[in-house]
Amino acid sequence: MKHIVFLFISGILSIGSNAQDNSLSTQQKKDGWVRLFDGKSTAGWKGAFLPEFPSKGWQVADGQLMVEPSEGKESVNGGDIVTVNSYGNFELLVDFKLTEGANSGIKYFVDPAQPVPSNPRSAIGLEYQVLDDARHPDAVLGRDGNRTLGSLYDLIAAPKDKPLNPVGQWNTARIISKNNHIEHWLNGRKILSYDRDSEEFRKLVAISKYKDITGFGMVKEGRILLQDHGNRVYFKNIYIRNL
């Protein structure tokens, strides 16, 4: 099968069929892009509530970073992983591939100082939902579809006509954060945007599951997170640049 990957050169999306996974061109490096995953190791990542990378629950194979299944239970196996570094103004690209019924997420502005929970759970942050909308029950929970793939989880719904590739195929998430303005993109199309310092955002938090978390989503800088929700999900081509 011919692999198609998305390339961002000088901020403009183009498509190339000859690019190698988990690699950057000379021009992309000049444009400030860096790899968060080299396709071979877990360098630059750690457990969300651990000083090191989890000893179980995640695998690196065939140039892919994979969450191992654990009966769909949240953070009971390896747990979430986060970048060692924190980011504020950034542009992030992540290729992800779902399996049937899978649930995961790409979180950002994850506060490194949040306390270690007494019971297993995901670390708290703003979340780009990664979900099999057709098969996972979370897709019909929340409000008005705000837990479907690409949504700002439990806050803002992605559109129903989003350009989604089927389960088993690769999709590309793009998250842009600049001066508190956030955009979610899917496969080259912007699917939602918001301002996290706005009154509208505060109202959305007030009616969400995060309503009792003081200052939710408002840290100046935070880590990038890949979620362990107990389902097999694959990631590759994880790139970021500071804006």
Q: How is this structure best summarized?
A:
This protein is mainly beta and 243 residues long. The chain contains 2 helices and 15 strands.
Instruction: Give the uncertain stretches in residue-range form.
Output: 1-18
If helices are DSSP runs of H or I spanning 4 or more residues, what is the number of helices?
A: 2
Write the H/E string, N to C: EEHEEEEEEEEEEEHEE
Number of domains: 1
CATH class annotation: Mainly Beta
Instruction: Profile the largest sheet.
Output: 8 strands, antiparallel
CATH domain fold name: Jelly Rolls
What share of the residues does DSSP label as strand, in percent? 25-35%
Average pLDDT figure: 92
Number of strands: 15
Helix % is under 10%
CATH superfamily: Exo-inulinase, domain 1
Question: Could you characterize the architecture of this molecule?
Answer:
This protein has a single domain (35-242), classed as Exo-inulinase, domain 1 (Jelly Rolls). It contains 2 helices and 15 strands. The chain has helices at 26-30, 199-206, and strands spanning 5-9, 12-16, 34-35, 45-47, 58-61, 64-67, 81-83, 90-98, 103-110, 126-131, 170-178, 181-186, 189-195, 223-226, 233-242. The strands form 3 sheets. Strands 3, 5, 6, 8, 11, 12, 13 and 15 form an 8-stranded antiparallel beta sheet that branches. The longest helix has 8 residues, at 199-206.
